[in-house]
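thought: fold this chain, then report.
action: predict
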Amino acid sequence: MRKLQPHGIQAILVAVILELGCAELSAETSVTVVEHERRTVYHSPQTPGFTCWTGLWAMPDKTVMLAFTQATGPLKGRPKAPPEVLRRLDWPPSGRQNYDMTGLDLSNVYLQSTDHGTSWKKVGEDHFRTCMNGAAYHRAQLALANGTIIRCVWGRYLPYENPPLPQTGLLQRSDDRSKTWQSHKVILNPKKYTMLVTRLKRLRDGRILAIGGIADLPADNKLTRAQLSTKQYPGLIVSHDNAKTWSEPIAVVPPDHAKNWGGEEFDVAELANGDLLCVYRRRDPNSAKRRDVRWQGILAKQDDTWVPKQVGPAPFPHSGHPNLLATREGPVLHIATTGIHWTTDEGRSWHRLNAPATYYYPDSLQGPDGKIYISAHVGGDNAYGSVDQSIKLDTFRLKVSR
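observation:
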């Protein structure tokens, strides 16, 4: 077992032993994977396939849902997006015209498993048009107690809608397991904020967290995608009423680090004391090349909100959007293409788990039966047709010995 120590973070994070139930997890805790399986659960009807950006959640009836973005259509000869749309979205990347998805059949695909991830059946698919490689954020989906599914959509990535959508984070609901979706609703006041929601999480007390990047600008601003990214800061909002209304934004980075933070992606894991362990994707403040790095910190619970404590480098290399899973056995998992690690001391030390690294942009869930599910896609942030993508699923259980 390889033990990783965050660089200089020990003096930063609060030294509290994590309690779970009646047991305390000590420095001698051993965490191992048992019953690991990896399988391909979906491939596009055409080859090379374009299937990516997965999300996982459990339904109230204890079934498991998996969603992702799919594109099909010709590799060549497609129409191009209007120049003004491409300018505002800074798209496609220079010299990579096949990143323009205009003219393709794009859809959000929904699969359901009723046998703990062994088999999957398509239960929903809704189509949309864009030049981007997605619009719904599938890791920003979850099910309410009545079975309603909620998902977050980035209005800026749907430039062909008529009438135009608000250019900010939007919420949709499905009352029939993803077969149909209600109209888009703005999440935060568009006269004050532009918010991209990249993650939804439910707390133990039933509240819902929406995690993402916030800009203190009206949603009808004329900034390009690159310009807007310089105004965004990582933050979260909270709902007490099943995503009908939301709190004002809560900062997740201390003020002395907020300027030039770079990047809105992060994830949280709720600890036993109500604090939130955070892992962030940000620009390296010590690199002239402004490379992406991982940092971590604690959001300390204060009444119904949280206050960011000091933050510092995490021991992981950069690997896309961070993914954290607070398990019922106690350990918090950091899940990435570079490996899976666990901590039982609020991130003061991390240990490599005996499980293979994941495929690209993983999402994770601990199911009602205790099994851990990790979805991801083969490939990366690929141009259409350049890689034969497919959807992969890892499942396993944790064995914790003290």
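thought: worth noting. Helices lie at 83-89, 225-229, 255-258.
final: tokens above.
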